[in-house]
Design brief:
It comes from Shimwellia blattae (strain ATCC 29907 / DSM 4481 / JCM 1650 / NBRC 105725 / CDC 9005-74). One of its GO terms (molecular function) is DNA-binding transcription factor activity. Pfam families: GntR, UTRA. This protein is of the alpha+beta class and 239 residues long. The chain has 2 domains: 68 residues, Orthogonal Bundle (Arc Repressor Mutant, subunit A), CATH 1.10.10.10; 158 residues, Chorismate lyase-like (Chorismate lyase). Helix content is 31%, strand content 32%. The chain contains 8 helices and 10 strands. A hairpin with a 2-residue loop joins strand 5 and strand 6. The longest helix is centred in the N-terminal third of the chain and has 18 residues. The protein is elongated and about 65 Å long. The chain starts with a helix and ends in an 8-residue tail after the last strand.
């Protein structure tokens, strides 16, 4: 009981610093050693308090860099055709992104081939990258695209948003056909690219985008930092 009270004390003190702006948004917290001295608690007690605040989305951890106060959450409607770039700008945020790799894969997972209506031996475009808000990397993605419906897609991509390439080079406006969400942890590759750890909580978003004929032409697998995003979907009123 005493240990629990001590953890709650550490958590409450840290939360008060965040609420009062002692640690500004996006700023680094003192090291765990310094925090132990400031709060007069043991390392294990402090760690439990930090993890509790992480689970509430108040702070986040960067591998080998320490703990940071969370930035404002990004409001993300995964059903919208609006690109990440446009949505971020509309919310007064500074978006940035990078495509780490763009390649043609000969043997994609069976479920990817099935949803893109391809045979297992058919080539598929695989594009991996990350997105950031205000210079903080918030998600990692794997994007699969059917080359039969978008030949030479990766040669047109550059640093453009996917929606821009579809519209400009294929005269296609894609829409979301399927969405799935799952709480998880960052994968190894996601950790390397956006600076998390294997224990970093995240939200996996699987999104299938279709053309005007209803064919799935793009599949996005996204890993979002738990503290960085609020998902919402606007439900249309039935007539």
């Amino acid at each position: 009981m005493e240990a629990t009270s001590t953890v709650e004390y550490a958590k409450a003190r840290l939360a008060a610093w965040l609420d009062d702006g002692v640690v500004g948004l996006g700023s680094k917290l003192p090291s765990e050693r310094e925090l132990c001295e400031l709060l007069g608690v043991k390392r294990m007690t402090l760690r439990q308090g930090l993890l509790a605040l992480e689970s509430e989305g108040r702070i986040f951890r960067k591998d080998r860099k320490g703990w940071f106060a969370a930035l404002p959450r990004f409001n993300y409607n995964p059903e919208s055709s609006t690109s990440f770039k446009q949505a971020a700008l509309e919310q007064g945020r500074i978006p940035s992104w990078r495509y780490i790799s763009c390649e043609t894969v000969d043997h994609a997972p069976a479920v990817i081939c099935q949803n893109l209506q391809l045979s297992p031996e058919d080539p598929v475009y695989l594009i991996c990258g990350w997105g950031a808000l205000d210079n903080h990397k918030v998600f990692y993605h794997q994007t699969w695209i059917n080359p039969l419906t978008a030949p030479d897609f990766i040669s047109h991509l550059g640093n453009n948003a996917f929606a821009e390439v579809w519209a400009q080079h294929y005269q296609t406006q894609t829409h979301t056909r399927h969405l799935a969400f799952r709480p998880t942890r960052l994968t190894g590759e996601a950790c390397r690219e956006i600076g998390g750890t294997p224990s970093t909580p995240s939200i996996l978003v699987e999104k299938h985008r279709a053309d005007s004929q209803g064919r799935v032409v793009q599949i996005d697998i996204e890993y979002w930092r738990f503290e960085s995003v609020d998902f919402f979907i606007d439900l249309r009123e039935s007539k």
